[in-house]
Design brief:
Strand content: 15-25%
CATH topology of the largest domain: Beta-Lactamase
Radius of gyration: 45 Å
CATH class of the largest domain: Alpha Beta
GO molecular function: phosphorelay sensor kinase activity
Subcellular location: Cell membrane
InterPro entries: Bact_2-comp_sensor_kinase (IPR050640), HAMP_dom (IPR003660), HATPase_C_sf (IPR036890), HATPase_dom (IPR003594), Sig_transdc_His_kin_internal (IPR010559)
CATH architecture of the largest domain: 2-Layer Sandwich
Number of helices: 19
Organism: Cohnella zeiphila
Mean pLDDT: 77
Strand order of the largest sheet: 3-2-1-6-5-4
Structural class: alpha+beta
Distance between the termini: 54 Å
Keywords: Cell membrane, Kinase, Membrane, Phosphoprotein, Transferase, Transmembrane, Transmembrane helix
């Protein structure tokens, strides 16, 4: 009965819907746990990484600024300041030139980096003292006549320098104008011009000044990227700013507003700004703050491939669960439908006698149908809900672990990049320290006197406090050309223990590093050597040895992010190491290695992210608990459904037993609408049939006759369908066999051109009618185009030739089928129409920016600008707007095949493709197609 079939379907749909809902709920819980875990890990890693990056940047920045500040201190020592304190404007030119040459040599010996300082102003006290500007990298000074400190005092400009001495500042135009007072009578026009030129040179520039200490004003004009030198080249998505104590931005990489550091703690995120992605670090010695603004990855996982991957797997699980549950339940309810059908058809008439035949017990006695309904439902929920949840949970765990490992690798690279900059900066700082000490006149005098007078003790003449950067040294030593110690900063009463082998002493003018130096504590250490040429006209030399402390190359780490490193030189000798485990230590670290700029060193980092291990353990426990709860819930629901469904079956059983015992049957009242209701309805119907046998016999005979007729019709239709299918199979084979016969006959008669044409036609037909995927290898598409060209060359008498310029490695990419032949056909029909010879078609391919570029070019008649513009306009329309002649526009014969190819590419690749057309009248046409190569089945490389 149709009504019963409708009721039967409703129960299956309900159970399938319940299975899908349970599966959806379990997948939602699993995804929620996974995404919460991913966000938690990502956010925690970002915060911790940001803190370590901020600490490392603070060290890098402090090191860079100390380097520049030390340079300012050195420039105020007598070696440089005496020239300007003397009355050089009253001296003889020859004397001035000699002293200026010595000053220039000392400055060049400092080897000042233009990456830090661009120019230096030396401004004398009054008109009798010289004022110069030196551009770093230049071999001469620029005189500044009319500019001296007295003039700056009279113009009130020096007030700015007094306020901001020894601080990194930047003065805008308005600030300089506000401080400048040119009304003083002491300022001559020449002085005013000199002041204007000086202010223009420092306006909006980063500068550092000593505020005219020791009667000499020194102004360093710094490189705009001085602060940027503390950052690696790959800075990520964060922005970095340097702000002074008046909240003025000295330098920034941010495109927008810079958060104020006032609400940021020295090691806490800026809570006052309401943005947990902003961190501040203080540079107290310079009254500066570093402000780091980065978007925390709290919602990063939802924008990454994790979200799409989890959703895709969950969707596939839901679809699979719905299909399995549907067909499974149909199998489960098959006995109910068979019993219902048997009960409807068991009333028979034989010689006008009513006969009720029994239902075979073997119908449900064996195999799957012998399992109880409750166990079947439990099995169903295990297969469609519990098992997928468990498998997906394991897959999610693996996938998320892989992503977290990837994040950790990125974090290790970022931390390593910042640390590399710090190590390179510290190495440069020590080299500059060696340069600054080497030009010290005090050392020069000490060495000269010590080499000429061995009876005097000159150790007391050396004031260590005047040399910046010595705080990072264990000790330093002065050596003669034979390695004998002349002076040591420690144990000066026993200088002999500091003597070194002459092999360490190289004849070079720049500082150099030695990795295998054995210090006085019998430890192999790294050391800096610097040759010093004495300025006593004796051509004597000595060497300066600097031994840094073990902690000089220390890198930033935290409680949650532990770090280790090992530095080696170009020969593989160890330079420095800290907490570096050769075997990985307590757990497998995330490694990163890099060369150190400015040196021949190489550094290897190890980072341990403890938080990841802890959170991963919690995550696994949550997944196991979730899977267990899903299994118990699914089993409970299965038992409940089984009890609800078997209740009417028990009632039917009791009614049938009563009918057998009492001798008469009664109908069973049941208001359900499911498969069991179908059995009950059939049972009630059977009772009615027993009371109306005579009339029902006639109806059953008529129904049997009609059924026989329908069966005959169905049999006839089946035979016709099989015949049609056989014909469909025979026709292609018949055609190929016929072509092969023609090919063999042509070969026997020596008609090789006909043979080639027939072979090309056969291959072309096979490719054209082949069923399967929409894509094919580019190599097969090219072969198809070549077969087409072979036939067309024969047809047009060789009026054109073709060339394929496609590398072998590109032929293994998948492309959409039938995209070349229509374009080549256009070239032949419209490009070479009426040509007897000279036509050429070139098909080429290349890989460009991650997409496959395919060009089809001919040297035919081309198109005029109007036709080309119309064709481009047609291609720019959406596919639904290609109405052709229906919108009143005449279809362009040049573009029919082209539009077809474009439409198919557009539908298959969507926004990932592009097609460009270039044509010049009488010079040919070129069509360029760009398709993606990273999507599976749409340009991807075959396995």
């Amino acid at each position: 009965m149709p009504e019963n079939r409708k009721h039967s379907g409703m129960t299956i749909r309900r159970i399938v819907a319940l299975v899908v809902l349970l599966t959806l709920a379990s997948q939602a819980v699993l995804i929620s746990i996974g995404m919460t875990y991913a966000n938690s890990i990502n956010r925690s890693m970002s915060v911790q990484r940001g803190g370590v990056v901020a600490d490392q940047l603070q060290r890098n920045m402090t090191n860079r600024l100390n380097d520049v500040n030390n340079l300012l201190l050195v420039l105020q020592t007598p070696e440089f300041s005496d020239f300007f304190r003397q009355l050089m404007n009253l001296r003889e030119p020859a004397y001035v030139a000699g002293e200026r040459r010595k000053l220039l040599e000392n400055l060049q010996a400092l080897q000042i980096s233009r990456q830090e300082v661009e120019s230096i102003y030396f401004i004398g006290l009054n008109a009798n003292q010289a004022s110069y500007r030196m551009d770093v990298g230049s071999d001469r000074f620029v005189e500044l006549p009319g500019l001296h400190s007295d003039v700056l005092d009279s113009s009130k400009v020096s007030n700015l320098f007094l306020r901001d001495h020894d601080q990194f500042v930047r003065y805008g135009k308005q600030e300089l104008l506000d401080a400048y007072d040119p009304s003083s009578r002491l300022i001559e026009p020449s002085n005013k011009q000199a002041i204007d030129s000086f202010l223009a040179g420092i306006q909006d520039r980063l500068i550092l000044t000593n505020s005219n200490q020791y009667s000499l004003l020194v102004v360093l004009v710094l490189n705009e990227q001085l602060f940027g030198m503390a950052l690696p080249q790959e800075r990520g998505i964060a922005s970095y700013s340097v702000v002074n104590d008046r909240n003025r931005v000295l330098w920034t990489t941010a495109s927008g507003a810079v958060p104020s550091p006032a609400s940021c703690g020295p090691s806490q995120p800026c809570e006052g700004n309401g943005d947990p992605g902003v961190t501040s670090r203080e540079l107290p010695a310079f009254h500066l703050h570093i402000v780091i603004s980065s978007e925390l990855a709290g919602r990063f996982a939802f924008r990454s491939r994790i979200w799409e991957g989890l959703l895709a797997v969950s969707f596939g699980t839901l679809v699979l669960a719905s299909f399995i549950s549907f067909f499974y339940m149909k199998k489960v309810f098959q006995p109910f439908r068979l019993i219902s059908s048997k009960m409807k058809n068991k009333l028979k008439t034989n010689s006008n006698e009513m006969v009720l035949q029994p239902i075979p017990e073997k119908l449900i006695a064996k195999g799957f149908q012998a399992v109880s309904l409750r166990n079947k439902l439990i099995l169903l929920f295990c297969i469609t809900v519990s098992l997928p949840s468990a498998l997906n949970g394991l897959w999610y765990a693996h996938f998320l672990n892989r992503e977290v490992h990837h994040w950790a690798e990125q974090s290790a690279k970022m931390l390593g990049d910042f640390s590399v900059v710090g190590v390179a900066g510290q190495a440069s700082f020590l080299e500059n320290t060696a340069n600054e000490i080497s030009v010290s006149q005090q050392f020069q005098n000490y060495l000269t006197n010590n080499l000429t007078n061995h009876d005097r003790n000159f150790d007391a003449l050396i004031n260590l406090n005047m040399y910046p950067g010595l705080i990072d040294l264990s000790y330093f030593v002065l050596l003669d050309p034979f390695g004998t110690s002349l002076y040591s900063s420690i144990y000066s009463n026993n200088k002999d223990i500091f003597s070194v082998s002459p092999k360490y002493l190289e004849d070079r003018d720049d500082p150099y590093w030695v990795s295998d130096y054995e210090d006085i504590f019998n430890r192999v250490s790294v050391a800096v050597f610097r040759k010093i040429e004495l300025d006593d006209r004796s051509d004597r030399v000595t060497y300066l040895l600097l031994v840094p402390k073990d902690s000089v190359f220390q890198i930033a780490e935290s409680e949650q992010i532990r770090a280790g490193y090992a530095i080696t030189d170009g020969k593989g000798l160890p330079v420095s190491s800290h907490n570096y485990a050769q075997d990985g230590g307590m757990s497998s670290p995330h490694r990163y290695d890099s060369a150190i700029p400015g040196t021949d060193w190489h550094i290897q980092f190890q980072y341990w992210f403890q938080d990841i291990v802890n959170q991963n353990r919690v995550y696994q426990q949550q997944y196991l608990l979730c899977i267990l709860m899903v299994f118990l819930l699914a089993a409970g629901i299965a038992v409940w459904i089984a009890s609800v469904m078997t209740k009417p079956i028990k009632q039917l059983k009791e009614t049938m037993l009563a009918a057998g015992n009492e001798g008469f049957a009664r109908q069973l009242h049941y208001e359900g609408s499911n498969e069991i209701a179908g059995i009950i309805v059939s049972y009630n119907h059977m009772i009615v049939q027993l009371q109306q046998t005579a009339r029902e016999n006639m109806q059953m005979m008529e129904e049997n006759a009609r059924t026989k007729i329908r069966e005959n019709e169905l049999l006839k239709m089946k035979m016709q369908a099989e015949l049609n299918m056989l014909q469909a199979q025979i026709n292609p084979h018949f055609l190929y066999n016929t072509l092969e016969t023609i090919n063999m006959q042509s070969m026997k008669r020596g008609h090789h051109e006909i043979s080639r044409t027939v072979n090309a036609l056969g291959d072309l037909l096979r490719y054209s009618i082949a069923k399967g995927a929409e894509t094919a290898l580019l190599d097969k598409e090219l072969n198809h185009a070549a077969n087409y060209l072979t036939i067309q060359k024969v047809r047009f008498g060789g009026s054109f030739e073709a060339e394929f310029d496609v590398p072998d490695e590109l032929r293994q990419y998948h492309v959409l089928r039938f995209i070349l032949q229509p374009l080549i056909e256009n070239s032949i029909k419209h490009g070479f129409g009426g040509w007897d010879s000279g036509g050429k078609i070139v098909v080429s391919a290349a890989l460009e920016n991650g997409r496959l570029l395919i060009r089809v070019r001919d040297n035919g008649v081309g198109m005029d600008e109007m036709t080309l513009a119309k064709l481009r306009a047609d291609l720019s329309d959406e596919p639904g707007e290609w109405a052709g002649a229906e919108d009143g526009r005449e279809a362009d014969p040049h573009g029919i095949g082209l539009r077809n190819v474009y439409l198919r590419l557009k539908l298959f690749y969507k926004g990932g493709m592009s097609m460009e057309i270039d044509s010049v009248l009488m010079r040919g046409t070129e069509i360029a197609m760009r398709i993606p190569v990273d999507a599976e089945g749409s340009g991807g490389l075959t396995a």
